[in-house]
Amino acid sequence: MTEPRIGLIGLGTMGRALTLNIAENAEPLAVYNRTTERTHEFMAQTRASEPALAERILPAETLLEFVDSLSSPRAIIIMVDAGPAVDKVIADLRPLLNDEDLIIDAGNANFHDTNRRAAEAEQQGVPFIGMGVSGGEEGARHGPSIMGGGPKDHWDRVAGVLQAISAKYQGTPCATWMGTGGAGHFVKAVHNGIEYADMQMIAETYGIFRDGKRRDAAAIGAVFAKWNEGPLQSYLVEISGKVATATDPETGKPMLDIILDRAGQKGTGRWTVIEAQHLGAAIPVIEAAVLARNTSAQLDRRQRGEHVFGPAPAPLPHDTLADATLEGAMIAGKIMCYAQGFDLLAAASGHFGWRLPMPDVARVWREGCIIRSTMLNDMATALADSPDENLIFAPFFRALIEKHIPDLRETVAMAQMHGLAVPALSAALSWFDMMRTGRSTANMIQGQRDFFGAHGFERTDKDGKGFHGPWAMNG
Ligand code: 6PG
Question: What residue owns the CA closest to ligand 1's atom 14?
Answer without folding.
Answer: 265
